[in-house]
Structure formats: C-alpha cells, structure tokens
Amino acid sequence: MLQTFSRQWARAELACAATLAAAVTALILLNVLTRNLGFALFWVDELAIYAMIWMTLLAASAAVHHKDAVAVTIVTDALPQAIARMLSCLVDAVVFALALLTAWFCWRWFLPLEFARAGFDVETFQGATFNFIYSEATSTLGVRKVWVWSIMWIFAFGLILHGLNNLTTSVDRKEQS
Questions:
Q1: Is the C or the N end of the chain the one with fewer CB within 10 Å?
Q2: Helix and strand tally (H, E) in the chain?
Q3: Residue 162 in 3-state DSSP?
C-alpha cells in the first residue's frame, strides 16, 4: 500500500512540476513580449520565480521516489553485494532522517500550534512569537508569502512518504538476501 501511494504521489508531483515548467516558460515569454512592447508586467518575474521554486521542490521529491538523484557509485560498485545493500539502506535512512528534519523545520518555522493558540489572529501571533510568516506579502503580487512557502509542507510530506517507502523497500530486500 505504501509503495502504491508513493508511486501515485510521485506521479502527481511530476504532473504538477511539468505544468509549472510550462507555466514558467509561458511567463518568461510573456515577460519578454511585454517588455519589448514597452509595458513590463513586473509581477510576472516574481510569479515565474515562485513557480520555478514549486516545480523544483515537487520534482526533487519525485526524484527521491524514483531514486533518480545524481550519485557517485565508484565505492559501492567496488564493494561486495551484501555491504553495498547495507550502504543503500544507510543512504535511505539518511534521506528519511532528512525528510523528518524538513518537517520539523517547517513546524518550527510556521509554528502552527502557536498560531492556533493565538486564535488564528495574525497580529496576536506576531506579538507573541515575533514571527511574521503569516503577514509578509510578496513584493509585486501582493499575496501573503505563507502561501508561497506552503510548498515546504508539501515537499516535506512527499519526502517523508518516498523516504519511508525507499527505506522499507531496502530493508525488505536486505532481509530477503
């Protein structure tokens, strides 16, 4: 079940990342066109940057599922099969630990419990924590940055899901051999 969910989540991440890649291309072309016509739309630059950030994080999470990250295998290729499998399990454990740390950093950054304790009142939350995450607006779009940064929660979830899937798969393979 975990493998199926991880596979479906990765498929959705890649579909969203591909859509965002197309959006980035369209936004850049729009930017070039409007600048050449003499009426630049400054919000287009910012939106293209945010779309690229979302695209990158979604694709990176999917890459963890597919184990498509760049790797130097000169050491593992020279090791006996059993040790190489053990090293693979260790790498998957480190990736899973990184995923958990990413979620923890999001928790510390967004402070959702403190925000709820403040009654979801932004000013009360800011006064208690000196954290302005829920009120800071983007430069040209005027959207609260918390919506842009919410990709970190999605990234953390995908990383945890794919990391756990890879770790359990590696451990199962190690036990079978």
A1: N
A2: 8, 0
A3: helix
Range of the domain at 38: 2-176
What CA–CA distance (Å, rounded) separates 47 from 13?
Answer: 19
| Residue type for position 154 | I
How many angstroms separate the CA atoms of 156 and 166, rounded?
15
Place of tokens 């009426």: 39
Domains contained in the chain, number? 1
Greatest alpha-carbon pair distance for the chain in Å reads 66
Enter the DSSP assignment of 136.
Answer: P
Q: Write out the chain's pLDDT in tens, 177 residues.
A: 999 999 999 999 999 999 999 999 999 999 999 999 998 898 999 999 999 999 999 999 999 999 887 777 888 888 898 888 888 899 999 999 999 999 999 999 999 999 999 999 999 999 999 999 999 999 999 999 999 999 999 999 999 999 999 999 988 776 666
